Amino acid sequence: MRIRHGLVVPETSTLREVAERLIISDCDLIAVTDERGKLTGVVCESSIVRALLSNPATDVTIQSIIIRHAESIRLDANLATVQPLFRSCANTAIPVVDAQGVVCGMLMRSDVIRSLLNRHTESANTTTSASTSTSKPEVPAATVFSATAFKPPKKRTIHAGDAESEPEDNQPRPHFLRADEARRVLWAAEDRL
In what order do the strands lie in the sheet containing 93-97? Predict the structure, then answer.
């Protein structure tokens, strides 16, 4: 599995530190650990926003906004175990822990989608090549998490303020408007609760 390690903070972190991490990441959730590195919970983007609106002091720690009952997955989990967790929660990531409960990082929903696309592409390629040559053995679901196999199309959406030229590395930029709109809908739903 492709695990992102930068989305983990200690529970002594300040609101500013966590807000800065969330701003530079493409995730709305960050894992929180104790002094031994074990998962104590998660902090979501909307909790940071509410905390900053109610108390603009950024040197306050995140201890009061940690969601203590967070779902997590084991490092050795397979794709069949991971899929239902993303269906049942509205977050874009789930903490990954090892056998001792130490946080290894976060698994992003986009990486799961990418692995599903890879799996579909590989099975389609296997089917077409099986009709022309000998069949290849099936790849177990746990090894499907390859971040490099699926290449998104080179289409790019231009936003206000963006330069009209392609980025120097010729990689498409992420589309932030859809994610922002989804977050607004989630925040509105949370406010109604």
Answer: 73-74, 93-97, 103-108
Q: What is the pTM of this model?
A: 0.60
DSSP 72: -
Name the superfamily (CATH) of residues 8-109: CBS-domain (3.10.580.10)
Going by C-alpha positions, the residue among 18, 16, 122, 13 that lies closest to residue 61 is: 13
- What sign for the dihedral angle of Cα 43, 47, 49, 51? negative
Residues in the chain with pLDDT < 50? 135-153, 155-156, 161-162, 164-166, 175-176
Instruction: Report pLDDT digits (tens) over 7-33.
Output: 899 999 999 999 989 888 878 889 999
pLDDT of residue 86: 75
Q: Which residue has the tokens 């949370």?
A: 190
Write down the domain spans for the chain.
8-109
Rounded Cα gap, residues 79 and 32, in angstroms: 24
Integer CA distances (angstroms), 191 to 43, 45, 66, 67, in order: 17, 14, 18, 16
